Amino acid sequence: MSDKPLMPSEVRRKVLSQHREIEQMLSELEAGVARLGEGGVDAEQVKRAAYALRGILELHMNFEELHMLPAITEADGFGPERARHLNTEHQEQRKQLDLLVDTIREASSIDDLAGSVAKLAQMLRDDIEEEEREYVTDKLLRDNIIPTDTFGG
Known about the structure:
This protein is mainly alpha-helical. About 75% of the residues lie in helices and about 0% in strands. It has four helices and no strands.
């Protein structure tokens, strides 16, 4: 990752692209779980995929913290509060992800594994939806130098 500042619209484009990639990985993980009983996929493959996804999510959150936080901080008068909220969300999300991935790795039955993967997928989809509604908008992540509405209204 480069430390070079990106334009807000580029940050938005990259975050949205990463979200679509994460959603695709979730769909593939869920498809793997659905095929567990068929013999084409085994539980260890699903567990490794979940662990790999955790690494991808860490890179994604690091990207957001490096590039999106500065952009939303400068977007309008509520920027610093939004940035604090996103940081808090990421801290909590890291804890939840670690717990869920540990639960997936320790799952001793297909039902336990499927349930944990379903929880992980739902948590991540909910988070993506919230982020795109609250932070990854063209209103906040725009290239205007002078904000059109200082107070974000």
